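Can't paste images in this forum, so I'm doing it all in text. The chain is below; anyone willing to post the predicted structure tokens underneath?
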Amino acid sequence: MKHLEDFKKVLTLPVLVVALGYFVDIFDLTLFSMLRTKSLTDLGLKDEQLIDVGIRLLNAQMLGMLIGGLFWGVLGDKKGRLKVLFGSILLYSLANIANAFVQTVEQYEILRFISGIGLAGELGAGITLISEILPKGIRGLGTTLVATIGVAGAVFGGIFVEYVEWRGCFIVGGVLGLLLLFLRFKVHESSLFENKTTGHEWGSLRVAFFSGQRIRKFFLCIFLGAPIWYVAGLLMSFAPELSKELGVAAEITSSRAIAISYLGLAFGDFFSGAASHLLESRLKSVRIFMAITVLSIVLIFTTTHGAGEFYYYLLCFLTGLGAGFWAIFVTVAAEQFGTNIRATMATSIPNFVRGAVVPMTLAFKFLKPDLGFISAMMVVGVVVFLLSLLSTFLLEETFHKDLDYLE
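Text version of the structure:
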């Protein structure tokens, strides 16, 4: 009964508004991967160009998120968490609407970059706000609810793109973001930020990164979350090509693979958050769900030759379920650092994890000519998961940590 009461306590307006914001964020974030083949084919590309140009556009979006993560993070510590929630959603909503009218790959690339900058601010600022306004005993449940509702945006997107032309999808994504702005006016700023003390630098990159200990935690947090975007950015985004290489009997689409894996991710976020609450440990929960992810990926690579559509998508769901420790990961990232640089780190780290798709895809392209499609994908995955597992033993456990402190 106590745990049920804890869940009820997190059902507050700020949590629900942040969760809806993340829903729109994920809807817009995954749209390109779902629409890659349709949109690029409509622009006149075909065959190998769909992969090469697709990687180029995905990397442009991720580069924007890397830059945006630092920009919005610093702004969140200097000007407030709410200002980031307003500014970021406005930028990526307008960019997505403009994306509906592109006529060339170059225009597409510029707008994916701008969208990436906007998309970078939503999650980190929201998680920082929720972590600071909820009591430490239930703040993990708050971030779990945000992530669970949020990742469902990809499920909605996967259904939506089946019935709406790709340009219309981008317009709807942008309009949803603009509508959400009105709800934000009812949310109040974090008291930890409003009562900030003088004598400390707020949102300082020098404080954040000119410290060996903080740099170490920064990279360990990135390693911790990287497997989630190995799944989302490589395995699911390139599911059509991977399934063909594996000899799957049915035609697999990226939109369905992404939507189904994100459905699993939504369940995984809920159950990993609940497990963290019951175990009173963030990192133990991560290890459990990482093991589920690895097992599911092994089954994809070893048991899908000649398999049908249902079996392959079932494994996509299970892989997403295992990778559903995103809620725990972003909570750990927020809890590792003091209030004066918390938004900087909590916003930049998830975006560096998303941006890790860039070196992953580059490593995959480098290895593919010599190792082949499947082996190259596997090698990248092994490295990513080993680094993540190592980080679970080197990072500080933060479940009971008091967040009212400064760096």
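The chain has a mean pLDDT of 88. DSSP finds 19 helices and no strands in the chain.
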